[in-house]
Amino acid sequence: xxxxxxxxxxxxxxxxxxxxxxxxxxxxxxxxxxxxxxxxxxxxxxxxxxxxxxxxxxxxxxxxxxxxxxxxxxxxxxxxxxxxxxxxxxxxxxxxxxxxxxxxxxxxxxxxxxxxxxxxxxxxxxxxxxxxxxxxxxxxxxxxxxxxxxxxxxxxxxxxxxxxxxxxxxxxxxxxxxxxxxxxxxxxxxxxxxxxxxxxxxxxxxxxxxx
Length: 211
Known about the structure:
Helices cover about 10% and strands about 35% of the residues. With about 210 residues, the chain is mainly beta.
């Protein structure tokens, strides 16, 4: 089949686009607002976008309750900091709890029964139960084009520079991160998720770094 993405004339019960851009890693973003109140929310439009310096992004769409945009973006812009926590397979249900729409200032980390742990270089706490956390300094926000008729669903991309990295020693094996030791969760389409439980190596023929 083929459909015009601007017209969305696919004839299916739901738009399939996000089910085609898979799997998407989940950035579990922790922030604090100007009053020091903690916020925690997962974003599946998340990834790394640079190495020198290390940069990541998370993308937000639409408003959130009675606020003009998502709380994570508001806090990152206000305080200049955020943390990306990894969702291990054992944390999927707790991650899902933090998707709930709650009032601004409500601590989703507490709501999900998670433990805040102090960071070294930024003020927002990391999720203690998460095996990986990236401390980030906010860089800038890029507003994306607004689609006519969907003005309330305007999107933006929030960029940050990674300044500190936490890795649980239990997921390190022979000097490498052992993905199967924590099986990170990724988002698929609709309400579907997956965990990484099958890993193989494929060496590039012209680059000895990738062994």
